[in-house]
Structure prediction request, 328 residues.
Amino acid sequence: MKGRSFLTLLDYSPEEIRALLNLAARVKAEKKRGEFPERLKHKNIVLLFEKTSTRTRCAFETAGYDEGARVTFLSNSQMGKKESLEDTAKVLGRFYDGIEFRGFRQETVELLAKHAGVPVWNGLTDLYHPTQVLADLLTIREHVKKPLSDVRFVFVGDARNNMGNSLMIGCAKMGMQFTALAPKSLFPSEALVEKMRALCKETGGSVTLTEDLDAVCGADVLYTDVWVSMGEESRYAERIALLTPYRVDRAMLERTGNPDVKFLHCLPSFHDLCTEVGKSVFETYGLREMEVSDEVFRSPASVVFDEAENRLHTIKAVMLATMTDILD
Ligand code: CP
Ligand code: NVA
Prediction:
């Protein structure tokens, strides 16, 4: 994988994804043992952010530092304003050994990768969030006591966005049973669904789209994401109306019939009134919690902070795999 970019899981085979997960588990164990081999010493990394972030930025920074790399955070560059994407990519490629991008358009990260001459990693676009899905798969491997190919995974909520898309791809690649439980208007694109169903014929997975809450029966994992993603802030009224019946609450957890069901969420999450947005939604719409109840978020079924920690280990694996010959 040395020299490759990581723009979408579509570009990675099931074997390559498994190799990244295995590497992530290995570097996680190393770190827990206090081993820091510094395999990225003298590498420079730049993190380009158009959108806000806690986990992704901090995971790239700490993963880089753990491995001896030097990291630049860049959120006010000339890119797109006074300098084209192509020129920016060519300049950054002269300075840096790897480039992370978080922003709006998938085309941006693809153009950067085309022109940079060094690996480019997608830290989230409107369309995909592939590094998050690696962390999610590692977390499921750790917490669900069956092979990934036997796991019944239900994504609940806004299924046509970056998380819904990338989870569907990740589950299809791993041969998992993926269900998107959402109102029809928020189903993923037919083109992507067809592509993933074709892939499932090879991997043994399945993709189901439904509005029926009974689809959670037998689930091993319930996953949700915010109802309104970054860049869509004008859509609260519409999404609240559409998605309130799909909140992950105790009744939905019980409906799975699985006492060991796990709850995952990429975070950040609106499960209480301790955020500015949460308070403003409460004042305008009277909701105290949105996509997940505070009860479920804090319940023993919830593994969201293990999942957040796994961003670090999986991102470290992506950087090592694409900047060194560790997997070649
Ligand atoms: N899950 C995730 O990408 O978190 P941040 O937005 O904080 O990076
Ligand atoms: N769908 C969310 C994911 C945040 C990690 C967003 O794009 O805002």
User: Anything to note?
Assistant: The chain has two domains: 9-129+311-323, 146-259+262-300. Residues 304-323 form the longest helix (20 residues). The beta strands are 44-49, 70-74, 98-102, 120-122, 152-156, 177-181, 206-210, 221-224, 262-265.
